[in-house]
Design goal:
single chain; 279 residues; alpha/beta; 6-stranded parallel beta sheet; 3-stranded antiparallel beta sheet; 11 helices
């Protein structure tokens, strides 16, 4: 396994591998690697000759400095996991390498969904995500890139970003991996105390409740009941809505099967969790 710290070195490494005819898969992460990340890397390994995983906690996508500061970092353990599963390349840059002094944000098209739900609660978050991914895609120039549906709005944003700037890169959207009690795997789960960890499992159950109510109850009744499930001590939902799975516009009645997605964000104590289900 190669650990590469500098974008110039990564560029020349990849040029060499492409000249040998190798296809490149790219999995961007912020580290604190868990099985959800591993599933993306394994999918990439099935489809590509060489897999590059980046570990970079991107300051531009955090609007809350304390959230950035508390973001879990455990590189040595990450390297061990990635080595064990056979990931060939880790790009582990410092902030100065990703954003050198002469770095300029790209002037990009903004989409309405960048300002609602995750974007509404974290102003500027999706622009930060778009900026770092534009930079990474320009460096790595992969054949395919792998993202988790766990971050549903992010997946849609990446789709738009690729359409606009890198139509040659294929986007592979991967399913959400969950703990045995249904909680979506997340690096942030590490920050949950035992008490909040138990309560956090109510969150996926509330989403499941909406999914199971599909066309059996009215959409508003289903949402109301799910919100009631989340009104337990220690939990607080920031948003919980059913939207059109493609446009992300809020809907007031069920759409045909497969076109609905329930998006939610919940605070379990101080830890912010997001999740969704498509149905
Ligand atoms: P992060 O390190 O949180 O930026 O996540 C890196 C990638 O892993 C993103 O594409 C996420 O959507 C994906 N991911 C995070 N959690 C999960 C999960 N539980 N299942 C599948 N993919 C995930």
């Amino acid at each position: 396994m190669e650990i590469i710290y500098y974008s110039n070195r990564l560029r020349s490494y990849i040029t060499e591998k492409k000249a040998e005819g190798k296809s490149i898969g790219f999995v961007p992460t912020m580290g604190a690697i868990h099985e959800g990340h591993v599933s993306l890397i394994q999918e990439a390994m099935l489809e590509c000759d060489l897999v590059v995983c980046s570990i970079f906690v991107n300051p531009k996508q955090f609007n809350n400095p304390s959230d950035l500061e508390k973001y879990p970092r455990n590189e040595q353990k990450d390297f061990e996991i990635l080595e064990k599963i056979g990931c060939q390349v880790i790009y582990f840059p410092k902030v100065e390498d990703v954003y050198p002094k002469d770095f300029k944000d790209i002037i990009r098209k903004h989409y309405f969904f960048e300002n609602v739900y995750e974007g509404g609660f974290r102003p500027g978050h999706f622009d930060g995500v778009a900026q770092v991914l534009h930079r990474f895609f320009s460096i790595v120039k992969p054949n395919s890139t792998y993202f988790g549906l766990k971050d549903y709005q992010q997946c849609i944003l990446v789709e738009k970003l690729l359409e606009e700037y890198f139509p040659e890169i294929e986007l592979v959207k991967c399913p959400t991996l969950r703990e045995s009690d249904g909680l979506a795997m997340s690096s942030r789960n590490l920050r949950l105390s035992t008490k909040y960890r138990i309560q956090a499992a109510i969150f996926p159950r509330a989403l499941e409740h909406i999914k199971m109510s599909f066309k059996k109850k009215s959409l508003s009744e289903a949402i109301l009941e799910a919100k009631e499930m989340l009104t337990v001590k220690g939990l607080k939902y920031e948003y919980l809505d059913v939207v059109d799975a493609i446009t992300l516009e809020k809907i007031s009645d069920w759409l045909p099967k497969g076109q609905n997605v329930v998006l939610g964000a919940v605070l379990a104590g101080e830890v912010r969790l997001i999740d969704n289900m498509v149905f």
